[in-house]
Each structure stands twice: as C-alpha cells, then as structure tokens.
Design brief:
mainly beta; Porin; eight-stranded antiparallel beta barrel; two-stranded antiparallel ribbon
C-alpha cells in the first residue's frame, strides 16, 4: 500500500510559523537571524524559510575578512508546477554553513558560503521523481552580500542539491537555484 502525507498550504504555513516563532526565543537558542527562500528548477518551485544561529566559530583575518561557521534550520515546500498528482512535499533541513566574508566595499560586505547537511521529507516522491528515502543529504554553495546600516540584511544566490547519496534507489534528487533574503537581529 502506497500512503503519502498530504501537505496542504495551511499545514505548511503552520510548520513555517512554528519555526519562525522559535525566533522569539532567540536569546535562549542563540538564534540571530530569519530568512526566506525562493527558487526551484523547471518543474518544481521551492519556497520557505528558516532560522540562523550565531556563529559557533569565527576567525578574523586581515583587511576585515572573516571566516565563520554557523548553523541554519530550514523548512521548505516543494510544489510541482504542472502536474495535479504528486504535487507537493515539505523538507525540514539542518546545515552547518561555512562562510568567508570579504572586506567592506561600497557599503556592502560580499561573501561566499558552502554547506553540507541533511533534510527530512514528508514523503519520498514529487512529480516523477522517486527520492526513495525520507532522509536526504543536502549541500549548497552560494554568493551574496550583507547591507544596511549595521549589515543586518543579506541577499544571496545559492545552488543546491538534495539527494539520498544512493542509500536506496532510485535516487532522483533535486538540484535547483534559489535566492535567500536574511534579516539578522541584535547586531551591535
């Protein structure tokens, strides 16, 4: 018997609201940012958001450069653009993110980042893609810049891949581009 969990827009909104409400407890959780994600490939739209933690580790370098490691948690919805069946799922992700920030230029702080983490999916197929396992690895690379009076805003472009690393076949996975807008609070 092939059972799937139906993810309605209201269920997705409740899950996303729960993640964002965790941001209210940010002093206890060391959460320092919230972000929104929008992207996808030719058949699947990916949207959602998440929380970012204060850096776990950072190494200042000369010329105002900085290398840091922080964690993020994501909740994303995947919607099939064209087919009425197998049309959506939700992915819950956690990633440690390594970021290299360059020195400030014209009021902007450019950076590059990369991450390898994991995702848990609400079901294992969307469109004609068979993902086989609810547990999926994920990795991304991105470029972006911080801006604002205290550099409290970030805008980044990322290239992301999610698959089960052949734990089980088929392993169709999803590779897509996305845009991420971040707001960091409690900056000095």
């Amino acid at each position: 018997m092939n059972r799937t969990t139906s993810i309605t827009p209201s269920r997705f909104r409740r899950a996303l609201l729960g993640v964002l409400l965790c941001g209210l407890a940010q002093p206890a959780l060391a959460v320092d940012s919230v972000f929104a994600i929008l992207g996808g490939d030719r058949n699947i739209v990916v949207y959602g958001g998440g929380l970012g933690w204060e850096p776990w580790w950072s190494m200042p370098m000369e010329n105002d450069r900085l290398l840091s490691l922080r964690g993020i948690a994501t909740v994303t919805g995947w919607d099939n653009r064209y087919k009425p069946v197998n049309k959506s799922l939700v992915a819950f992700g956690a990633y440690p993110v390594l970021r290299f920030e360059g020195g400030q230029m014209w009021g902007l702080v450019p950076y590059i980042e990369g991450a390898v983490g994991f995702n848990l999916l609400t079901h294992t197929w969307i469109e004609e893609r068979r993902l086989s396992t609810a547990f999926q690895f994920g990795e991304f690379v991105g470029v972006g810049f911080s801006f604002g009076d205290k550099h409290q805003f970030d805008l980044a472009a990322r290239y992301q891949h999610i698959s089960n690393a052949d734990i089980k076949r088929p392993n169709d996975g999803l590779t897509y581009g996305n845009i991420v807008f971040t707001y960091r609070f409690d900056l000095n």
